[in-house]
Design a protein that fits this description.
homodimer; 2 domains; Aldehyde Dehydrogenase, Chain A, domain 2; 7-stranded parallel beta sheet; alpha/beta; 4-stranded parallel beta sheet; Aldehyde Dehydrogenase, Chain A, domain 1
């Protein structure tokens, strides 16, 4: 079933996607929803072909000695493939973000101005060996009227090829052109990097994955990038913080899903609070198997806490480790976050409204929390529906990006001969 | 009055701007307006110092043999300096785009979510020898709570230094830190290009000027760029177009201010309309001194029309020349615009609603006009107040960019111990 042409170049694929995007932009919501439903059904039906391809990737991955977490993300089951289909069905239920009149007004000369949402055009999606992104991103792209060029991790190439073949087969029965979904087959880095500079054909790049993947895209891209994902998230426990609430929200943010980007990486704690609540914190760390790496004070106060190096403050652990910094004021906490934060999610636990207000004003991040876990920075959790990623940049879209992040707008002016 | 330190590096200036931006973001609207008023008054008072500096640039420019249009843009008068001050006073009257609650809602678990506008941080402004940008961009940046690093054309260096000195002097009497406005003094290209990659300190780059300046920034920037300005604008005169309206709007778009980006560059005309209205069009071209460069049909039909080369279709004339393409359908017109347009402003003159609808749906540009001149793509004309530029890109902001384009947002979550 490997009927995707191998000889096609990245540029040819991008040009085909652009041509498809022009047709796609003219379709109705019903046309797009019918196509999504067709894709969902085809995925449910053709799961065997996808599982066969996935087996090849899994065997290659095992031979290469990839770790268990990597292989778990790569591995598909019939149930996981059904989840892809269900995800597409959820996207069908979401409001079409295009062709909406954002605002309109009439100038004194009678010229009527309206601002109308339209698709971006062609999205370039660069990601690692998570085949679910192939289906999820396709669904969000098509619903918002965009074509998509997918470049997944090479360890998932057979799986992704099989998924995209199924998608394209399904689209052939619908009004959405099959060319609207392109998977880059080339594994040559020079060839695939061309995607990053094809401003004529690609409207936006969305890298999803670890810090090094995102950095590689940002460093070489001239196509606009929506940066996603790296979350070096902090929680500041203020002098005034309620002890139970602080420990409960800390444990949730740290342990609920340590490998995700909205998980907590550094606990910043006020010295006075720590003195009062040392025993409760130590117990929480020990009972949950959390290894602390701290500054001098933390090492003295917390048994088993090892000294933190620069990397402890700067990097995500994505596991059951936590950096612990002891401070004397909210200002010191803000300075620490300012230095090491990645503008993702930052929390303050406090009963002091002045300190909360300072924190909310001064900390520069997509999502700020008062008395809550950082784990809510997520499209589903915040009520946006599915998300294409979590933006850690400031332009265009910040925080969880739902369908509206995949649109832009036009000003449409209607006149009867107006001149200036 | 050259008291800006010459030895300072671009990086030091960017760091100082970032530190100032943090203070600026905490100020009230009244604080910012007071600062803008102080700057306006100081500019009105210290016009002599600015004129003296401008004389130096003018003499150097004359010696270098710059053309009259260039020197006219560079030259200041007391009246022009008063215009800078009046521009700042207009910005004072505009609504503060920050600290606005865009939307808010409460999740089922009681977590309250609000989306609040905040400044971008530090804006890097790269422009040519137009000293008015120095004052205008500073006003818009400060009003929206942003620091600004200015890199103007080196032929205006004395003028810009004098203007920024006056601005900084004025700011010293206000709550806005003087460091919030930085002028890059270095003329070393390698040194100034550092601005384009300082992602830690610069939040967005806005290049304003000709195609080559914008391209140079886009090609080497890793800091997000808001592309502005190049407008290869088209007007399509449909078979059904009213002849008087077509000629009136064409003449306005072409001749009102040919050197600006929303001026018309290419007239696409339906063959049948041209046959009917040939004489009126020829008269309009001749009476207004417009030189046509056309395709084969245009050359045959229009006396004095020279054959168009690829560059005629692709580039802005910015003068009283026009490219003329004759087509047989709205689809052909759309294809031409798709190939040569710069996504700025495109117009259709037509009485056929189907063709209008096709044009509005299919043409990908910031501003689309039905039966009106393209000259309205402008912040003032559309009622936005002052503009920082006209975006021809799709992300973040499209078309004329007023104060809201200089903001981003934060999600602020307020809870009472919510965990996931």
């Amino acid at each position: 079933m490997d009927h995707i042409k191998e000889a096609v170049t990245v540029e040819e694929q991008a040009i085909a996607a652009k041509a498809a995007a022009k047709k796609l932009a003219l379709l109705t919501t019903a046309d797009k929803n019918e196509a999504l439903l067709a894709v969902a059904k085809q995925l449910e039906q053709e799961y065997e072909a996808i599982l066969t391809a996935n087996d090849m990737d899994m065997k290659a991955g095992e031979e290469k000695g990839y770790d268990a977490a990597f292989l778990d993300r790569l591995q598909l089951t019939r149930e996981r493939i059904n989840d892809f289909a269900n995800g597409l069905k959820e996207v069908i239920e979401l409001e079409d973000p295009t062709d909406q009149v954002v605002s309109e007004w009439t100038l004194d000369n009678g010229l009527h101005v309206s601002r109308i949402t339209v698709p971006l055009g062609v999205i370039g999606m660069i990601y690692e060996a998570r085949p679910n992104v192939t289906a999820d991103a396709t669904g969000l792209a098509l619903k918002s009227g965009n074509a998509i060029v997918l470049k997944g991790g090479s360890s998932a190439i057979h799986t992704n090829t099989a998924i995209v073949n199924v998608i394209q087969e399904a689209l052939q029965q619908t009004k959405v052109p099959a060319d609207a979904v392109q998977l880059i087959q080339s594994t040559d880095r020079k060839e695939t990097a061309k995607l990053f500079t094809m401003k004529e054909h690609i409207d936006v790049l969305i890298p999803r994955g670890g810090a090094s993947l995102i950095q590689a895209v940002v460093d070489s891209a001239t196509v606009p990038v929506l940066e996603t994902g790296v979350g070096n998230c902090h929680m500041y426990v203020d002098e005034s913080a309620d002890a139970d609430m602080a420990i409960r929200t800390f444990l949730n943010a740290k342990t609920d899903r340590p490998a995700v980007c909205n998980a907590l990486e550094t606990l910043i704690v006020h010295q006075a609070w720590l003195e009062r609540n040392k025993d409760a914190l130590v117990k929480a760390l020990q009972e949950n198997g959390i290894q602390a790496h701290g500054d001098e004070t933390a090492v003295q106060v917390l048994p088993g806490c090892t000294p933190a190096a620069e990397a402890d403050w700067a990097n995500e652990y994505l596991g059951l480790d936590v950096a612990v910094r002891v401070v004397d004021s909210v200002e010191e906490a803000i300075d620490h976050i300012d230095r090491y934060g990645t503008k993702h999610s930052e929390a303050i636990i406090s009963e002091d409204e002045d300190n909360v207000s300072k924190f909310m004003k001064a900390v520069d991040a997509a999502a700020l929390y008062h008395n809550a876990s950082t784990r809510f920075t997520d499209g589903h959790a915040l009520g946006f529906g599915a998300e294409i990623g979590i933006s850690t940049q400031k332009l265009h879209a910040r925080g969880p990006m739902g369908l509206p992040a995949l649109t832009t707008y036009k000003y449409v002016m209607k006149g009867n001969g107006q001149t200036r």
